[in-house]
Amino acid sequence: MFIQGILNWLTLASLTFISHKHEDEDPLKRLGNLTPYRVAPASHKVKAELPDDCSIDRVMLMHRHGSRGPAGAQEMDLINSLVQTLRNGRDALQDAYLPENLRFLQTGKGYESHLDPENLTIIGRQQLFNHGVEFGLKYPNFTTETLLSSTTQRVIDSMYFFAQGRFGREVEDKDFLTVDDIPGPVSWITPWTSCPGIDWHYASKASKPGLILVGNEWSNAYLPDITKRLNDLLPYGVSLTDDDTHGALYACTYDIAAGEESPWCDVFYADELADFEYEMDLIMVASVGYLVPNDAGRVMGSVFVNELINRFSNTSGEAQSLYLEFGHDATIMAAMAAMDLNRDEPPLSSEELRQHRRFRTSYQTPFAAQMIWESFTCKESFDGPQIRLVLNEETYPLRTCAETKQDRRFGTCSLDAFKRANQFSTDIEFGDDTWQAACGAHSEVLNVQG
Fold it and tell me: 0.85 exceeded by the pTM?
């Protein structure tokens, strides 16, 4: 039974699922944190490969779950509202002259949605299986007996499919753990569960006060023009609301996540999809990034940074050579914010779309994002232990700790320089004054998604 399952997945893995390095012209590769997995744009100023005299000593993977269905009631409600509006206008649509990209509304039952909320899709399963295979090919001499994930089912499922791709039949001998199995007051995968002041319910974001509303402010600014444009194309008797338009944008992203071509994606102009992408970025930067009150996003990310430093420094004397761990987009973005790796100056805001921004979830946390940290040493090229970040298959330059020309050339830095550059994190301990100010029971309510 197990062998047959593996054979089935090997067949699936042979199907076309190709990530291209030069897709910036394709707006469907820029849908914020709802983007299908894609290779990050390469930094032309950074060498892709380490010098030949360097060898990797430790590897720490933090993997986001694969493509999923809509998260929370709000996204599903928006899509369902759109479907109902179209059903109510069915007769008017049948007799109307529509542009070609809207004629799908006249075929069969028109547009129907059968999305599975929250759960990993077949594309998500394929992403993780493929990544497991690719990881094994890239790091063939690194292995572990334990894999760790958050307690969310789609993340647990992602861990299993990655393990099947990486270990094959050996997966039966591996230990699959969740953060609930790990002792300690706070998890570097889900630090928000140890922050009483944080509300994880994404669906309630529209009704909560605070900086999360920058996403709503932006959607209130860009959606009306799209709604008007679409209504001008639709017959009398069919009147979309801004919520319906929002639902159509989400339908585009989640149809793709489910492995289907979405007719809605062809309805929107590239600049309209760019507005949607910016909304996703604003929501995330205000949830776990640089706009969170009391630096709570960065404070949560400090847990990951400190765990990374402790492992690569072998503080315990028992550090493994490989860590395979699975979490959320918020896990990765909070960690990057703690390290100041994608800060924009001035900060992102709902007042204007910032085309050239560093905080970009389409590149940094698409579905099935891979954050891989490497510790390495060299015979001559570098002195002492070094560290490198490979984010979605491309070296992500560690500019905050680069001290030499060689550092900047390879996007790396020494482990000592990395520690010094991350004093913000190393100065924080769970429960101290900084933590309490950011995450205590009386801190401002935050809202993040996974």
Answer: yes
